[in-house]
Amino acid sequence: MTDRDADQLLLRLHAALDGELDVMASLEFEREMHDDPGLAAEYRRLAALRDAVHRHAPREAASQALVDRIAALASSAPPAQTAAAPTATVVPFGRRAWLDRSALAMAASFAVLGLAVGAGLTSLRTPLPSSDVAQNLVSDLARAEIAGQPFDVASSDRHTVKPWLADRTTVSASIIDLAPEGFTLVGGRVAVIDRIPTPTLVYRHNEHLVALTELPLDAKGVRAAGGVETIDGYHVARWSDANLAYVAVSDMDEKTLGEFVEAFRRGGGPATEPRRP
Amino acid sequence: MISEVAQRRFREIVPPLLDDAYSLAKWLSQSPTDAEDIVQDAAMRALQALSTVSVDRPKPWFLAIVRNAAMTFMARERRKTMAYVGDMTDLDALDLRQGDDAPPNPEQALIAHEDGQRLRQAIAGLPSPLLETLVMRDINGLSYREIAEATVTPVGTVMSRLARARAMLGRTLRTEP
Question: Which of A117, B60, B139, B157 has the fewest CB atoms below 10 angstroms from its CB?
Answer without folding.
Answer: A117
